[in-house]
Structures are given as C-alpha cells and as structure tokens.
Design brief:
Blueprint: H1 2-20, H2 29-40, E1 46-49, E2 71-75, E3 79-89, H3 94-113, E4 116-128, H4 130-207
Parallel strand pairs: 3-4
Antiparallel strand pairs: 1-3, 2-3
Helix pairs in contact: 2-3
Length: 208
Amino acid sequence: MPNTNKKENEKKDVNKNVEEVKGELTYENKVIQKIIGFSLENISGLLAVDGGFFSNLTDKLINTDNVTSGVNVEVGKEQVAVDLNIIVEYKKNVPELYQEIKKVITNDISNITDLEVVEVNVNVVDIKTKEQHEADSVSLQDRVTNAVESTGEFASEKFEAAKTGISEGFSTAKEKVEDGIEAVKDKANDDDKEDEKASKSKEKKRVQ
C-alpha cells in the first residue's frame, strides 16, 4: 500500500509540473483546411468544394498541400470560422446539406484540435447533375493532361536542340584546334628551313 500511494503522488507531481510548463499550441490555416476537406469527402450531394479539394470523378482529396480558393478559414487561439464555396448535386435538399456540412466540420475540428467552430458560412456557387459534373471534370482533366504533354514535348525538343548545338560547337572547336596545330607545324617547318639556310650561309662565310 505505501508503494501504491508513493506512485500516485509521483504521478500527481508530474501532471502538476506539465501543467506549469509554459507555451501555446497553434494551427496553420492549411491544417484546418485539410481537416475540413477530409470531413466533407463523403457527404452525399456535395459534388465539390469550388477550388479543388475533391477530384471530381473519385471524390478523393487531391493537392492537399495546396491552399484552395474554395475553403477559407480564420483560426484563433480557441475558435475557428469557416467559409466555403461549394457545388451541389441537382435535386439535393440544400438546407439539409448545409446542416450536414456544419455538423461534420464542427465535430471533426473539435475532436482533432479542441478548437470551437463558431461560424460555418456556405456559398453555393453552382448546381449540376452528377453526370454533367463528371463530364465537365473529364474535359478539365483532358485539358490539363494535354497541357502537360505539350510542355513535355516542348522541353524535349529544346533539350535535343541544345544537345545538337553543343555537339556541333564541339566539332567546330575541335576542327579549329586541329587547323591551329597544323599551322604551327607548318610555321615550325618553315623556320627550320630558314635556320638551315642561315646555317649554311654562315658556314660559307666562315670558310671564305
């Protein structure tokens, strides 16, 4: 029994010491935005958060490291305010959807961060059928893919041109060096001949 009481007292002392440690816990806006994105992922009738949190075909999160234009948050030390721009599925009850959005956002942010959600403002920017939304998404995806492919081809062409230019430049430089070497050799031969003539001339003068 004495040992048990001792351990309990030590535990209380540790907890007391931790509480006395100074500091604060803060969250970047991006963290709260990502929590909201995950919270909204499976809400029926919500086609997308305008700005790109959802992949339009699979309803999965994409580019979660990017701050999107469709989710704006104001984060304080204890409270959070949220503004959303959303695209809603046609024939879905929008007020009920709004209540569901508020519920999941409030619960998840509270459970994960202990922050209090004081506002959730939702602006419906568009309403579409699911088929129309998927068709629009495919068109957008095609445009992005084509742009990436075009950029890749352009970069490849520039690389080949640069490589060819370097190769041609090296060949030209090599030819110039070789020409220079030949010129030096020719000059050296001419000098040798002149020296030989001069030497013979001197010999003649000495014997005269």
